[in-house]
Design brief:
Blueprint: H1 2-21, H2 25-30, E1 36-37, E2 45-51, E3 54-59, E4 77-80, E5 92-97, E6 107-109, E7 111-116, E8 119-120, H3 129-143, E9 149-156, E10 161-168, E11 171-178
Parallel strand pairs: 1-8, 4-6
Antiparallel strand pairs: 2-3, 2-5, 3-4, 5-7, 9-10, 10-11
């Protein structure tokens, strides 16, 4: 009996210690200034829309279905309805699908594990890829209500500008964004 009474407080004490040692890595990673790299990447997908716990992500790399009569530049898109992590529009993320995928376009699914990828920030740039893509998406939303696919994000040091290629439905265009932090 005494062993049981001693064991219970020790277990509670250990749980409090473990809870105090844990950190919220997702929130830390969501800060676009926290995890930066100075080389661009086309891995995984961009967050292009967000509403509550729902996000829409669009692949950063297109698929080529032209060999079978499909589109040469097709960007997969998935809407996730159960995202608990603090995500920002413009971030590149990897999201594991948990369960079946509804085959609409964009597809619909439940999210499993979510990983926020490092954001690109050239050494001489003031803005990060996340900030530039977020601004590009705001501009794209004024052109069409269809979600944008981010074709490329390039920083030009000479002009201190960013160029962002956008594809929305059948339209393709380039946006030029000044590398200037809004105050």
């Amino acid at each position: 009996m005494k062993v049981r009474f001693l064991l219970f407080p020790m277990v509670i004490f250990l749980l409090f210690i473990l809870a105090g040692c844990s950190s919220d890595d997702t929130i830390a990673k969501a800060d676009s200034e926290v995890n930066t790299v100075n080389k661009p990447s086309k891995e995984d997908a961009y967050v292009v829309k967000k509403e509550g716990e729902s996000v829409l992500v669009v692949d950063a790399k297109p698929q080529d279905f032209s060999a079978t009569g499909g589109e040469k530049e097709f960007y997969s898109a998935i809407g996730f309805s159960n995202i608990k992590e603090k995500l920002e529009i413009g971030q590149r993320v990897w999201i594991e699908v948990d369960g079946p995928i509804m085959e609409s376009y964009p597809a619909q699914a439940k999210a499993g594990k979510v990983e926020i990828l490092p954001t690109y920030k050239p050494d001489k740039a003031d803005l990060t890829e996340v900030q530039v893509v977020r601004e590009a998406i705001k501009i794209a939303d004024t052109k069409s209500k269809w979600f944008p696919a981010i074709r490329y994000v390039e920083y030009e040091e000479e002009g201190d500008i960013w160029k962002v290629g956008i594809k929305q439905e059948e339209n393709e265009y380039e946006l030029v964004i000044k590398d200037k932090v809004e105050q």
